[in-house]
Write a structure and sequence with these properties.
By secondary structure, this protein is mostly helical. Helices cover 50% and strands 7% of the residues. It has one domain. It has helices spanning 16-68, 93-102, 115-124; strands at residues 3-4, 12-13, 72-74, 79-81.
Length: 147
């Protein structure tokens, strides 16, 4: 019979029924995870094919706009319009950080906290707790396949 140890408690002997029940749960978790991966892979393949078609169709509509100067068109089934979408990024975060501080432009950044860096910061600086920082912790179960 296996001995289960929970956190810092003394291990207790599991009955054979408990062990079999837990083993079935682990086995079921692995099967479900495998099935989810199979379905995800299948759907990703189908989505990729649809995305390829959609990209080609949008390219044809864009080509029409370029040739005719049209900005939009409407049909009985729907419409399309051409617009400009600009994306911004930096290849030098140190310079960007200085620019943001010098110009008091923190609104140029998205408002989210890097989880790993915050955890490390708090571990290294327990006396420096940022004001209004919220944290939520929860126990999770990780199931691993036997190798």
């Amino acid at each position: 019979m296996a001995k289960a140890k929970q956190d810092n408690e003394e291990p207790h002997a599991m009955t054979q029924a408990e062990e079999v029940g837990l083993e079935r749960l682990v086995e079921a978790c692995i099967k479900i995870r495998d099935k989810k991966a199979e379905i995800t892979n299948e759907l990703n393949g189908k989505l990729e094919a649809l995305d390829t078609k959609l990209k080609a169709f949008k390219a044809a509509l864009d080509e029409h706009c370029q040739k005719t100067g049209a900005k939009s068109m409407a049909f009985e089934c729907g419409s399309f319009y051409r617009s400009v979408k600009t994306k911004y990024w930096t290849s030098d975060w140190e310079s960007m950080g200085k620019f943001i501080v010098e110009n008091e432009a923190t609104d140029l950044l998205e408002r989210r906290i890097h989880q790993g860096n915050m955890k490390s910061f708090l571990e290294e600086n327990p006396e420096k707790l940022p004001p209004n920082l919220n944290a939520e912790s929860e126990y999770t179960i990780t199931v691993r396949r036997k190798k």
